[in-house]
Amino acid sequence: MTKKQKFPYLLGSKWTAQQKVDGWRHFQVVNRKNQGKWVYAEMVAACDPKVRFWINAKLLQDNSQWQAGWQTLQQIEELEDDVS
After folding, report:
1. Which pLDDT value is given to residue 74?
2. Is the pLDDT reported for residue 32 higher than 80?
3. What is the DSSP letter of 74?
4. Which InterPro entries match (predicted)?
């Protein structure tokens, strides 16, 4: 029996940060790595490929920090209004 892969659709997925990271909000996953029970995603800014960092993929499930897909500023503000 094969073990189910965690975060199978991670590679190539697009994300919007709720707070700017190095001046950017829109990122794409360009790489992934498994380390023990943890899965990490390498994020690259959509508008500046020099801005890249590794993040624990579990953090992408936290809607207060990340939203799946690329959201417009208006959509981000609407989400913030819904939370408050």
Report:
1. 86
2. yes
3. H
4. CHP02450_Tryp
Q: Residue 23 gets which letter from DSSP? A: T
Length of the chain: 84
Q: Which residue has the tokens 């975060």?
A: 7
Q: Which residue has the tokens 């609407």?
A: 78
Half-sphere exposure of 11 (CA within 13 A, CB side): 7
Q: Which helix (H) or strand (E) holds 31?
A: strand 24-35
Helix residue ranges per DSSP H, 1-84: 73-83
pLDDT of amino acid 81: 72
Q: Given strand 66-68, what is the order of strands in its sheet?
A: 52-56, 38-45, 24-35, 14-21, 66-68
Q: What angle do CA 78, 70, 18 make, to 5 degrees?
A: 55
